[in-house]
Structure formats: structure tokens, C-alpha cells
Design brief:
The chain is mainly α. It has 3 helices and 2 strands; from the N terminus they run αααββ.
Length: 145
């Protein structure tokens, strides 16, 4: 089990290294863009959820062994419910792990798109006018669309 986990970690590191090395070289820009940061976070979440799925599956198998050796119907029922609960959690964790993996890889592979986002002027201009003879102050908010 430990050997398989270390192999998965090595493959994951290899894939991340390949994605980063094949990315186009940047002139003087930061390596940490929003897409790359969230991509790495999603890959880490995927690895974490995969580990939790393996743990839940192992727990379910252990509880199921005790279920087979149960002496009473009540004990067997509670053990079966626990094993079924752990199996469900394992399947849900695998699903989330796959979703995080696909999302993280997509964000890492499309990380060069951040450079082409057009800049939009989001400023609001405030004009303040006054008239001493009328003893008034006027405010105007201006926004370009």
C-alpha cells in the first residue's frame, strides 16, 4: 500500500514537472498566476481526497471482516451499516479526487491565457462643484461604459 502511494506521488510530481517545463518561457513575469496557483491547489486536493478514499476503503474492508464474524443480528446490522457508510465515503472521495484532478490539470495547461485578459477601466470619477453665491455643493459620479 505504501509502495503504491509513493508511486502515485512520483507520477504526480512527474506530470507537474512536465507541465511546468513545457509551458512557454516568460520574460520577466511571475510564475505564480491565479490559474497556476489554483491548479496546484486542486492537484493537492486531488491527492488528499485519493488518500482519504483509500483510507475509507481499507476501513470498510476491515469492518466488513468483523461483520462476517458477528454473533448477533444487531451487531451484524450496525457493522454492515458502518461498512456501507465507509464504502459510500470512499466512492464520494474518489469522485471528488477525479474532479479536482481534471480541474487542476485544466488550469495548469491553460495558465498562459492569463496574459491575454483585456484591461477594463473600472474607475468611478467623482466631480465636486461648489457655488459660493448659492451656498451649495454638488456631487456627480461618472462611470464610463
Amino acid at each position: 500500500m505504501h509502495r503504491r502511494l509513493s508511486q502515485c506521488a512520483c507520477w504526480l510530481l512527474l506530470v507537474v514537472w512536465m507541465v511546468i517545463s513545457f509551458a512557454p518561457t516568460a520574460e520577466a513575469r511571475s510564475v505564480f498566476t491565479a490559474r497556476r496557483t489554483f491548479g496546484v491547489l486542486f492537484l493537492g486536493g486531488s491527492a488528499l481526497m485519493a488518500k482519504k478514499a483509500l483510507d475509507f476503503k481499507r476501513d470498510a474492508d476491515d469492518i466488513y471482516k468483523f461483520y462476517k464474524l458477528a454473533n448477533s443480528a444487531e451487531e451484524a446490522g450496525t457493522l454492515f451499516d458502518k461498512a456501507s457508510d465507509r464504502d459510500t465515503k470512499s466512492q464520494m472521495s474518489i469522485g471528488l479526487s477525479a474532479i479536482f484532478l481534471v480541474s487542476g490539470l485544466r488550469l495548469l495547461l491553460d495558465s498562459g491565457i492569463d496574459d491575454n485578459i483585456p484591461k477594463i477601466d473600472r474607475r468611478i470619477k467623482l466631480d465636486v462643484t461648489s457655488d459660493l453665491q448659492k451656498q451649495s455643493v454638488g456631487f456627480a459620479l461618472k462611470k464610463r461604459f
